[in-house]
Every structure is written in structure tokens, then in C-alpha cells.
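Give me C-alpha cells for this 449-residue protein.
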Amino acid sequence: MLEIIYIVVTIGLTIFVHELGHFLTAKRLGITVEKFAIGWGPTLWSFKKNGTEYIIALFFFLGGYVKMAGENPAEASAAPVEGGFLQQPIWKKIAISVAGVTMNAVFAVFLMWVVYLAGTETLKPVIDEVKEGYPAYAAGMQRGDTITEVNGTKIRYWNEISERVAESKGEISVRALRGGKEIAFTIIPKTEEYEDLLKEKKTKPVIGISPLAYIPVVEELKKGYPAEAAGMKKGDRIISIDGKKIQYWEDVTAAVNASKGSEITVELESQNGDFGAVTRKIKLSPKKEVTQDRDKKNTESYLLGIIPAGSVVKETYGPLKSLEKGAAQCWYFTELTVKSVGKMITRKIEPDVAGPIGVAQIAYKVAKTGIVNLLLLIAIININLAIFNLLPLVPFDGGLILMFLIEGVTGRMVPLKVQEVMMEIGWFLVMALIVFVTYSDIMRIISGG
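Here you go.
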């Protein structure tokens, strides 16, 4: 139930912030705002102040709206309204039109700032795979090494390793812990070509290591599986299986699959408050499952029903650094979205967009992972809303801005007939987009995506 509320808040808050931008700017520029509503539908409560009726509507979770005097082109042409929107100078009309997306952008930076202040889970700087034939392997790095320093900069998170290597212009110095001892390495990265999210070919320096993603600790238990029935609990660390020491999560999956469903003995370690670590042994038989790939080929596997804990640590920063990183992350998502839209339009990449159903589905999944991740999602949605609202289609703010720019160049308002045609074309394209993204959402759900 709580996740459903989060979905509603995600969509409603984004729309409300957008409309708030229009409202505050219109008020600031002396435009008569007749109504400012939180929500849609029947009025629950309202009051009037300085010529504006403030409304809280029944469906208060669906955002809101702003109604300005003289905003209807037909009515404004027939009877100009004092303080009316369309009677204002061009710069005022453009300022009000762009205020909604500006507010979304500012709100996105604020949310990202909160996310970095609160902290997000990120991978620890622990190595999982060291690829043969790469510089790290040649230098003697090993699985399980914890990187503590790169080029004299202390390392706390895995992404900092990637950043330092990407910045390197040649030889780099790396320090790592292995068995409690610090080891120094000198590595010369190799340049490798890769394909980014937008299918663009790029190059980057690499040393050939990947992070440890999971550890043999129970994060969650699947209902109806052997681990839950045998009494495993969240936080239990798997020490051994049938006497064989367990160090990595892959050791668990290998031992369980090797059992072929036969009974195994699992040794667990759990924390017991003031009594410290307590070990116990349980016996259970892995459950056989058969999955089918796209080629209809069956694959057998044996499961305990455990979702492992990630090899993660909380990434946090101070107020100023959080603002810097939050703004940089918003700019990254903005660039990525704009380029993605351009490549989808030119058919350089396959269209992959989410509509209301998709957004709700994503919000539901993200909400289950925690409030911080939900704030991150809301920030991304605000960025996307801002960008799409700048499209030069009349139902969007970008369409209004286009008409006002034409008015500024020609010295007169765009004729009503032309506005009506632009509106019809715009709404047709918007409805086509809604049908497309809704179809994509439904097909994604059907296919299990």
C-alpha cells in the first residue's frame, strides 16, 4: 500500500512543482492569476486572496493547475483583460512559459542534493575479477584486493577508481589491502574501445578489473524455498557448505548446483547482540528449477531461495560537495535524455520510452528499495518532464514559446486559425506518443520486462 502512495506522490509532485513555477512567475510579473489549484476535481477547500482563488481539490495527488486571466486566445482577442496573460510583453510571456520547466530543473537539483547528503548505496572498492591479458593482471593484482588509493587520492567507493583511471594520462600508482597488508602497484592502463548507452563508439583507459557485487550474506529470503523453511534469517553469513569454506557468493551457487538437489549441510554465522557472532548448522535440500531461454532451450539449476547482500557501502558527501555532484548528475541525465531523443527520432537507436503505466511500474519497484532511491527517480522524472515540455508543440510550453518568438519577430500575434492548426497537429502528435508509450508499457509487462 505504501508503495502505491509513493507512485502517486512521484507523479503528482512533479506536476505540482511544474505548475508552481508558472504560478510564482506570473504573480511576480504582475499577471492576474484567477486560480491556483492543488489537485483536480471537486473543490474540497478554497479561499481567495489578492484576486486569486486557492483551491485544494479532491484528487490532490494529481498535481495541480494555474488559470491566468486572458490566457484564452479567442477570448483575449475579443475582449482584452487588464493584467491578462496574452496582453503582456513578449519577454514576460516567455518567462512565464519557461518557468515550469525551470522549476522542474531546480527541483531535480535539490532532490539530487538531498540524495547525496543522505547517501546512496554504492559498491565497495573490492576487486572481483582480474582479467588476464590486462595491466592489473600483469601487475599482480588479485581477487579480493581492496583498493585504498589511486595516484595519491584516497578511495572509498568503486566509482572513484573508475574516475581516477579515466583521468589518467599514463602510469598510475595503486595501493590495495590484501590480508591486512598494504601492497603498492604501478600500472599503465591500456586504451580500449567501448559502446556507450547511446551506441556511440568511444575509447577509455582500462586496467582490467571489475567490482565484487555480492557477498555470501542473506539479504532476503524467497517464500516457499528451502532456505526460509530451514530457518535462515536476514544477515546470516554462509561460512561453509558440506565442510567446504565459502568466501564468495559464486562459491555458494557452485556448491548448491553441484548438489543436484541432494541434502547439504550449511554452516551459518549470525550476530547475536552482546554475545557477538554465533554459528549454527542447518540441513536442507536445494530446489530444482528449469528455465527456458529465448531459443526454447531448458536450463536446470538448484536454488536455496536466497537473495544475497551486495558488497556495498553508503556514499555520502557534505552540503557543498553534494550540491556540486547533484548538479553534475542532473546535467548528465539532461544530456543523456536529449541525445537519446535525438537518436530515437533519427532511428539510430531503438525507441525505449516509458509512459504513465511504465512510470508507475518503475516507481513501484524503486519505492520498495527505499525513499532515497525514490527521490533519485523523482529527480530524473522532473528532468525528463522539463525536456519534453520544451518540445515545440503547442500543448507544451515549448510550443507557446515558439509562438511568442514568432510574435516577437513579426510584431503581431500568430493568427487564431494558425494557432488552431498548430494545436491540432500538436495534440495529434501527443496522442500518438501516448498511444505508443502505453503500448510499449503493456508489451514490456507482458514480456516480463
